[in-house]
Amino acid sequence: ATAALIWNEIIREKVTNFIMNQSKEQRILNFVLQNAVRGDPRSVVDTIDKYCSQKEWAMNVGNEKGNRLILDKTVEEVNPSVALELGSYCGYSAVRIARLLKAGARLLTVEFNPQFAAIARQMIEFAGVQDKVKLLEGPSQEIIPQLKKKYEVDTLDFVFLDHWKDRYTPDTILLQECNLLRKGSVLLADNVIFPGAPDFLAYVRKNPRFQCTNYPSHLEYMQVEDAVEKAVFLG
């Protein structure tokens, strides 16, 4: 699994980037702009899945974990008014979540990498969900403490963790310290088995303030064992 990832992520991607003089993320965006329906979030999500399953692997949550079983299902159950995503990447899950939000609801998505942020912005706009999604660029540990005052967030109904795995635990602690979680707030963390977030699993599972459910799955677009962890904040 690791060898396949290294081949996909590093060697093949570097060669392709050099030949085409653009990043993989730019290629994903171009493919969407050329093949998806503008203003149709479902079409954008399906087109990214098609590209990543057929052409180049990418670290989106993917259709298996994104579909009815886990991400979509959780968003529909929580029906959030205010949602937070940590790690926008190309905007895939932001579009995926935004298409399920009720009128007047909003998603704040945080991206540290300026290149990814620029692509995610275009993806969100092309999908027609820019009225529901606000992209915040910068490190999560700087943005989380600003959410209440600067972005008028009272509490978060839903949080999707899909950024640096070593930030899952400190950011979960930070969300609590900043009083951004209420009783019933739902955290959903991707890739907890591969690449893995063992400290996060240990933290939420041992913490009496969280009720956890594990959803076994596979790494996006690959047959590698992975899982998504759902942690409900009990207050």
UniProtKB/TrEMBL annotation:
Enzyme Commission identifier(s): 2.1.1.6
Cofactor remark: Binds 1 Mg(2+) ion per subunit.
Listed GO MF terms: catechol O-methyltransferase activity; magnesium ion binding
Binding site for S-adenosyl-L-methionine: V61, S93, E111, G138, P139, S140, Q141, D162
Keywords per UniProt: Catecholamine metabolism, Magnesium, Metal-binding, Methyltransferase, Neurotransmitter degradation, S-adenosyl-L-methionine, Transferase
Requisite cofactors: Mg(2+)
Residues that hold Mg(2+) according to the record: D162, D190, N191
Positions of substrate binding: K165, N191, E220
Cleavable signal peptide: none
InterPro entries xrefs: Catechol_O-MeTrfase_euk, SAM-dependent_MTases_sf, SAM_O-MeTrfase
Assigned GO CC terms: axon; dendrite; membrane
GO biological process: catecholamine catabolic process; developmental process; dopamine metabolic process; methylation
Pfam families tied to this protein: Methyltransf_3
PANTHER family according to UniProt: CATECHOL O-METHYLTRANSFERASE, CATECHOL O-METHYLTRANSFERASE 1-RELATED
Sequence similarity: Belongs to the class I-like SAM-binding methyltransferase superfamily. Cation-dependent O-methyltransferase family.
Name of the protein in question: catechol O-methyltransferase
Lineage of origin: Eukaryota, Metazoa, Chordata, Craniata, Vertebrata
Name of the gene this protein is made from: Comt
